Amino acid sequence: MRQTSFSEMHCSLARSLDVVGDWWSPLVLRDLYLGIDRFDELVRDLGISRNLLTVRLDRLIAGGVVCRQRYSEHPPRDLYRLTAAGRDLVPILMALTAWGDRWTDPEDGPPITFEHRACGHRFVPQVHCSHCGAQVSADEVAPLPGPGGRPGPGTMRVGDYLGGEGTANKP
In what residue span(s) does the HTH hxlR-type domain sit (predicted)? Predict the structure, then answer.
């Protein structure tokens, strides 16, 4: 049940949310990453209705983050896999999971932890600067207009920056 489309907004976050911005899609993506890749398994693990899962998977496929692979013709059965774009969402889901571990107070500690295969150590997902490698936080970042930035729906701040009126993190 779509209420609003953000696909026409000049904002990458809004367009991303147009693809994965409902309650179920990140959970579907999480399950696919964890290897739960069959329709009936997804229904069982998530407790989602079959109709709702069908709609979510179709949107994720249309958005290019999931692909369907037929594994049986009679009866027709499919596996669902993350595409390259879907795999690029996994670190974002990990960071959101780390936020939940910190701010939603899981009673017995984190329900899942992450191990970096390259070094074998468990880690807490964080966002780092792609240039210097330092961890970044909201207070350490200055949003600036990009080459595709222009005033429009959902981009009031970008319009301010382009007009020279705005400053990052106004009180």
Answer: 11-108
**C-alpha separations of 89 from 26, 106, 164 in Å:** 9, 23, 33
- pLDDT surpassing 50 at residue 170: no
Kindly list the distances between the CA atom of residue 87 and the CA atoms of 25, 26, 84, 94, 144, in Å, as whole numbers in the listed order.
14, 12, 5, 11, 27
25-77 pLDDT tens trace:
999 999 999 999 999 999 999 999 999 999 999 999 999 999 999 999 999 99
Place of tokens 């150590």: 121
3-state secondary structure of 133: coil
Domain 12-123: assigned CATH number: 1.10.10.10
Residue 18's CB is within 10 A of a number of other CB atoms, namely 18
- Yes or no: say if 93 and 33 are a contact pair by the CB < 8 Å rule: yes
Other CB atoms within a 10 A radius of the CB of residue 35 amount to 7
